[in-house]
């Protein structure tokens, strides 16, 4: 069986691939990501991956938005 460390590594790999695609292949300068604030684990994960919260409070659809720059 796989532990949580393996799951985290796969998620981090996927996030790096998304960033690589956006920045290196598509030439984007900024990438946004949103998450349900109830999902504290995802919020911590995005912060560890270098995403910065755009606002401290959820938007009208109850989503927290993060961004990362190239």
The largest sheet is:
3 strands, antiparallel
User: Unreliable stretches, pLDDT < 50, 5 or more residues?
Assistant: none
> Quick one: how many beta strands?
3
- Residues in helix, %: 40-55%
Q: Give me the side-by-side strand order of the main sheet.
A: 1-3-2
Structural class, judged by helices and strands?
A: alpha+beta
Q: Please provide the ordered H/E string of secondary-structure elements.
A: HEHEE
Proportion of strand residues? 15-25%
- Radius of gyration equals 13 Å
Distance between the termini: 36 Å
What would the average pLDDT be, to the nearest integer? 87
SS field, number of helical segments = 2
**Overall 3D shape:** flat
Set down the secondary structure blueprint.
Elements (H helix, E strand, L loop, with lengths): L3 H22 L4 E6 L4 H9 L3 E2 L10 E6 L1
Antiparallel strand pairs: 1-3, 2-3
Structure, described:
- The protein has 70 residues and is an alpha+beta fold.
- It contains two helices and three strands, in the order αβαββ.
- It has a three-stranded antiparallel sheet, covered by helices on one side.
- It is flat and about 30 Å long.
Characteristic key phrases:
70 residues, alpha+beta, three-stranded antiparallel β-sheet, 2 helices, 20% strand
TL;DR of this structure?
The chain is an alpha+beta fold and 70 residues long. Helix content is 44%, strand content 20%.
